[in-house]
């Protein structure tokens, strides 16, 4: 199973830090899961112009292929002007909707105000619903105050990142009928 982390911005580094750290946590707890990070700043992706996605070339084709090959997703975006980034929206526009159908998505957002967490509820989850993807019940919002430079220093945020990683793995395994692993004995 391949988990793709997406840092959905071409500027800044904090979103990538959070996505990368969460992927590392998943890999530590579930070494059998293949993880990959798609950092949009590393690619020169064309704007979606409505053509058949198979006709794109270069970095745009690479990105479409990377996203299409994943089994489930951890998607991060900074919040700019009360919205997801244009780069992430463009990525969603480039990917054929069937690619995301019945796949699990977990969301991470970073921002400078405490109200920006609402973008996950009001924008990202509806996009996932359009794709008919399964959305993890929790998500992680990281405010600038939770960082010291590019280090996450808030224990609660680190804990929520761990829980989100656990949720997306468990959901993916349950929905694809794989053993859940890390089972807990409650009796």
From TrEMBL:
<dbReference type="InterPro" id="IPR051814">
    <property type="entry name" value="NAD(P)H-dep_FMN_reductase"/>
</dbReference>
<protein>
    <submittedName>
        <fullName>FMN reductase</fullName>
    </submittedName>
</protein>
<dbReference type="Pfam" id="PF03358">
    <property type="entry name" value="FMN_red"/>
</dbReference>
<dbReference type="InterPro" id="IPR005025">
    <property type="entry name" value="FMN_Rdtase-like_dom"/>
</dbReference>
<feature type="domain" description="NADPH-dependent FMN reductase-like">
    <location>
        <begin position="1"/>
        <end position="146"/>
    </location>
</feature>
<dbReference type="InterPro" id="IPR029039">
    <property type="entry name" value="Flavoprotein-like_sf"/>
</dbReference>
<dbReference type="GO" id="GO:0016491">
    <property type="term" value="F:oxidoreductase activity"/>
</dbReference>
<keyword id="KW-0560">Oxidoreductase</keyword>
<keyword id="KW-0288">FMN</keyword>
<keyword id="KW-0285">Flavoprotein</keyword>
């Amino acid at each position: 199973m391949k988990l793709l982390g997406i840092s959905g911005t071409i500027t800044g580094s904090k979103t990538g830090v959070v996505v990368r750290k969460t992927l590392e946590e998943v890999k530590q707890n579930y070494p059998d899961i293949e993880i990959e990070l798609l950092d949009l700043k590393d690619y020169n992706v064309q704007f979606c112009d409505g053509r058949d996605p198979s006709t794109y070339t270069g970095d745009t084709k690479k990105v479409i292929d990377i996203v299409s090959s994943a089994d489930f997703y951890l998607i991060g975006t900074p919040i700019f002007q009360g919205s997801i980034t244009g780069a992430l929206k463009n990525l969603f526009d480039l990917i054929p909707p069937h690619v995301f159908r019945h796949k699990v998505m977990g969301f991470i957002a970073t921002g400078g105000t405490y109200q920006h967490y609402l973008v996950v509820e009001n924008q990202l989850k509806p996009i996932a619903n359009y794709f008919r993807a399964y959305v993890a019940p929790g998500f992680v919002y990281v405010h600038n105050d939770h960082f010291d430079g590019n280090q996450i220093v808030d224990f609660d945020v680190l804990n929520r990142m761990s829980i989100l990683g656990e949720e997306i793995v468990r959901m993916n395994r349950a929905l694809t009928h794989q053993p859940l692993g890390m089972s807990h004995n409650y009796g």
